[in-house]
Every structure is written in C-alpha cells, then in structure tokens.
Design brief:
alpha+beta, Metallo-beta-lactamase, Chain A, 7-stranded mixed beta sheet, 20% helix, single chain, 6-stranded mixed beta sheet, 322 residues, 7 helices
Length: 322
C-alpha cells in the first residue's frame, strides 16, 4: 500500500487545561432540524462506491460506511491552513480516494492533513496505512493495537456483516475471508494527551481523553463553534464500555461543556447534543446499585446491562479490549 509523502503537521501540544463552559452559548440544534439537515445534505459521489459522503454544517464532511452493520463515520474537518481527518474507517475501501473525491467535487485545495484516531478499534483505524503519520493516545494499548496485524481468520464473521444500502456497493476486491488490517509502523505514530490543542489555522480543537470505551479514546471539542466529536464513547444514551466507574469519570469531564453540534461516529452523523450531565447522574446512581439489571448475548458472550432513567450501559471488556 502506498504511503503518501510526509505532511508538516502543526499540532500545538500546549498542555492547556481542559475546556471549560462559557456563558451565552448558542442553543442546541433541535432533533427535527438535524433530521432535515441530514435529509437535505449534499451527497458527494464516491468513485469506489463504498462511502456515502455527506456535506455537513461547519465545513465538516462525513465519510459514512453504511454497507456494513457498523455503519461507521469518519470525518473530514476543513481548516484554513490544514485539515483534520478524524478516523480512517474500516479499510474496506480507500479513504484516501474518498478524500480526493471530496476535494474534486468541492474544489478544495490540497493542504496538510492531520489524521487522528478516535481510538484503535478496527472499524476506526482500518485506513491508517494510507497515511504517513497518525495521531493517537499515548498509551501502550493503542501502540499494541496499531502495530499488530489484524488477521482475517479471527474476524471473518465480523467483516461478513455487510448490508445493502441504496447508492453504495462493496468493492469488488473485498473478501471478508481475506480482509486484513496490516500493522502500522510505530515510528510513524504521533501522540496526543489531555488538554493538547489541534490547530487548523482558523479553528482549534481541544483534546479530551476518554477511557471507558477503550483506554485510548480521544474526543475533540471546538469551544468557539461548540462542536463535539465524541468517538465511540459518546454517541447516545446507550453506552458500550469496559467499566462503569470509568464512564462516570468520562462524563464528569464533558458534562460542563456547551455543545451545539454533536458529530457521532456510528449511524446518524449529527445527533442531538447529549445530556451528559443527566447521564452522569444516572451512572453515579448505578454505581450505588440503583437501576434495572439484565443481560444480553452478543457474539456468543453474555454481557451485563444496566438501565436507569433512559440510560443503558452495557459492560463488555472482553469484547472491547481485544
């Protein structure tokens, strides 16, 4: 696989404090308005046919993969001096080619590109091999996942979960029995920590580290525009985590933030701003034994589930820490 030329990445590792709320924040966008935005979003043709590309508010493009049950989203965020790619998708089709499709359709110039993995589950870093540098969290689990080959034999049932979606198609050369995510060279990995700032020239994203879905979670927050990219830690009141106490800590970190635009990493690309404060209250009560307990079976594994006040938490370390 071709590795593209080195890009000069301007990331201000400022060790600044985590973002704090500001007064006078804009009201969140109503769900009905979000539905209208998504329904009317400009679609950009993906030449390989796998991605459904949506042009969204705030100079954000979603690269959606609805042809697989994961329905994962990666996001291209346009800046004045450099752009940012949040996740590289499943690796089933070339995310680099999809970016070229966006630039051609939108007449966008080539600029340095910062590539960040929200975390290192295989549906979010499958396209890393197409880029010369990738930013991730500075933890051993991330390094291990990046530098290990994901063998086809271990994940055939996973890759085989394809779904039909109008206007998209599975690449002709994709075979679930042979699909492999190759190891990423450790010397090409760069690191981000809590409070670091990713600078795009006209917009700045603060790094918020998260730990409950995987040890290496990275959420991004634009204070000025009140944009939030939460990865797999935050995309609804349905949480899939490794540990309930870690979820409480993650929610404590983000609950004070005013969010107008919440971009989600699976399914609908824009969702109503999450009620992190209310969810935190529910999770803290769960930690004290409140709520309903049940179980569900996924991939042959029985997982404990807790529910309280509309919040559902599934604890699945054996699935998430592979």
């Amino acid at each position: 696989m071709r590795i593209f030329p080195v890009l000069v990445l301007f990331v201000l590792l400022a060790a600044c404090q985590s973002p704090e709320p500001e007064s006078g924040s804009a009201p969140t966008v109503e769900p009905s308005e979000l539905q209208k935005i998504l329904r009317n979003a400009k679609r950009i043709v993906s030449q390989e046919g796998w991605f459904e590309i949506l042009k969204l508010p705030n100079d954000v493009y979603a690269l959606w993969e609805p042809g697989h049950v994961e329905k994962v989203n990666s996001f291209l965020i346009i800046g004045r001096d450099r752009d940012l790619l949040y996740d590289t998708g499943m690796g089933i089709a070339s995310v680099h080619h999809a970016l070229a499709d966006i630039r051609a359709a939108e007449n966008l110039p080539e600029k340095p590109l910062i590539v960040i993995n929200s975390h290192n589950h295989l549906d979010h870093n499958g396209g890393n091999r197409e880029f010369n540098e990738v930013f991730t969290a500075d933890v051993d689990w991330a390094r291990r996942r990046l530098t290990l080959r994901v063998p086809a034999a271990d994940f055939v049932a996973y890759w085989d979960q394809l779904t039909n979606h109008p206007g998209t198609k599975t690449p002709a050369n994709f075979d679930p029995a042979k699909h492999v995510i190759p190891p990423y060279p450790l010397e090409q990995v760069r690191y981000l920590n809590e409070g670091d700032v990713v600078e795009l020239g006209n917009r700045r994203f603060s790094v918020i580290r998260t730990y409950s879905h995987s040890p290496d979670g990275i959420a991004l927050y634009d204070r000025e525009a009140e944009l939030f990219f939460g990865g797999d830690t935050f995309y609804g009141p349905d949480y899939l985590i490794t540990d309930l106490s870690l979820l409480a800590k993650d929610l404590q970190r983000v609950a004070p933030l005013p969010v107008r635009w919440h971009y989600a990493s699976h399914g609908l690309q824009l969702i109503a701003a999450m009620k992190h404060g209310e969810h935190l209250v529910a999770v803290e009560r769960m930690l004290h034994g409140e709520g309903e307990s049940e179980s569900q079976v996924f991939a042959g594994v029985t997982l404990p589930v807790q529910r309280l006040d509309g919040v559902k938490v599934t604890v699945a370390p054996e699935l998430l820490l592979y």
